[in-house]
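SAMPLE LOG
Freezer: B-3
Tube label: C17
Construct: single chain, 162 aa
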Amino acid sequence: MISRARARLAAWLDAESVVLINLDAREYLRQQEAAAFDLVVSALTFHNWFSEYRGDVLEEVHRVLKPGGTFVNADRYAQSPVPHHQTVVSQVSQFFDVFLSASRPDLLKPWILHLLEDEHPERLMTEEAAVEQLNRLGFEAVEVRVRFGPDAILCARRPREP
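STRUCTURE (predicted):
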C-alpha cells in the first residue's frame, strides 16, 4: 500500500505537500499534540480493526482534532442485519463474476476470506454503533453523507469551544 501510494502521490510528495507515514495509527496519533489537526481522513481502514482498538483510535482522533475539525471515514458500515446480509451475498457473487471473467479464480479465496473476516463479531462495524460511538466521544454533526452498498462516507466534527 505504501509503495502504491508513493507512486500515485509522487507529485505531491515531491512538492512536500503530502507526507506518508508507515506507523501504527494509534501510536502515531498518541505522538501528536492535542488539537493539532483540522482534518483526519481514513479510507477502508477502521473496519479491519477489532472494536477495542478502533475505539482507542477514535478517542485519539477526537483528541488531535482542533475545535471545529472534521473526521471523515470512507469505510464498510454494515446496516441492519437483513440489508447487510444481502450486501455480503451480492459481493461474493460479484467476486465470482469479476474474478472468473478476468481468469483470476486464484483471487476468490483471499477476497472471500477477507470479507468473512470483516464479519467477525469483534470487527464488524455497524453504522448505528459507529454513530453512537462518535457521539459518545463528543463528536457532533455525525452523519453518513454517501452510501455505496456496504461502503459509506461518515463525517463527524469536533465541537467548537464556547
